[in-house]
Amino acid sequence: MPDIIIDEPELGLHPQALIILANLIERVSLQKQFILATQSSSFVDLFKPEDIIVVNKNDDGTSKFDRLDNNALHCWLEEYNTSDLWDMNLIGGHP
């Protein structure tokens, strides 16, 4: 069970505060497990792709959790960032 769950931690924060928050989460995550839910493409860019799990809906309506694979995305990530891939619907997480 995760130690800390936060839904949309980026809401209402200044863009520079997002960087501080992401760095804090990264440091604390060495000791505590975090689950963050976000719809912010700029916030996901502050994390490594392998730290991101995308939730998709199966045909039967259940949720499927897919961890991004940095190796599989390597060619894309040379030219684009994670938010670009999300915006282009290449990593899932469709509405």
Quick synopsis:
With 95 residues, the chain is of the alpha+beta class.
Count of beta strands:
4
Low-confidence stretches: none
The biggest beta sheet reads: 2 strands, parallel
Overall form: globular
String of helices and strands? EHEHEEHH
Strand order of the largest sheet: 1-2
Beta-strand percent range: 15-25%
Q: What is the tally of helical segments?
A: 4
Structural class: alpha+beta
- Oligomerization state of this entry? single chain
Q: How many domain regions? A: 1
Radius of gyration equals: 14 Å
Helical content class: 25-40%
Alpha carbon gap, first and last residue: 26 Å
Mean pLDDT reading: 92
What distinguishing features does this structure have?
95 residues, two-stranded antiparallel ribbon, alpha+beta
Q: Can you characterise this structure?
A:
By secondary structure, the chain is α+β, with helices and mostly antiparallel strands. The chain has one domain (4-87). The chain has four helices and four strands. The protein has helices spanning 15-28, 41-44, 70-77, 82-87; strands spanning 4-7, 34-37, 53-57, 63-67. The protein has a two-stranded parallel ribbon with strand order 1-2. Strands 3-4 form a two-stranded antiparallel sheet. The protein is globular.
